Amino acid sequence: VQLQASGGGLVQAGGSLRLSCAASGRTFSGFVMGWFRQAPGKDREFVAAITWNGITTLYADSAKGRFTISRDNVESKVYLQMNSLKPEDTAVYYCAADLSRRIITTKPLLYNYWGQGTQVTVSS
After folding, report:
1. What tens digit of pLDDT does each residue of 76-109 get?
2. What CA–CA distance (Å, rounded) separates 124 from 113?
């Protein structure tokens, strides 16, 4: 499975960005898909995830009410709509695929495949 993340950039606090992750190489619809982020000097942290059928989502507390994860199994893409961005959201954002489970896990080590990351910078 190859994952390609895009959509990052520089935005002012309060602004919005929409990240995209395109998957290829295997049937996309069977995976749990997640978004993680890593700020300089910090561990990679869970942001949001969505089950294979899009019915169940899970968000980190920091993302609740501001971020929305969605997926398009026809296009083999997963999205992260980020609104009301804050400077503390600044990080490299990664999409990831979990091929082993049908339920969501927040643990990075349990995701099998990772995209290359896209930088999100929020200025104050």
Report:
1. 999 999 999 999 999 999 999 998 888 899 999 9
2. 33
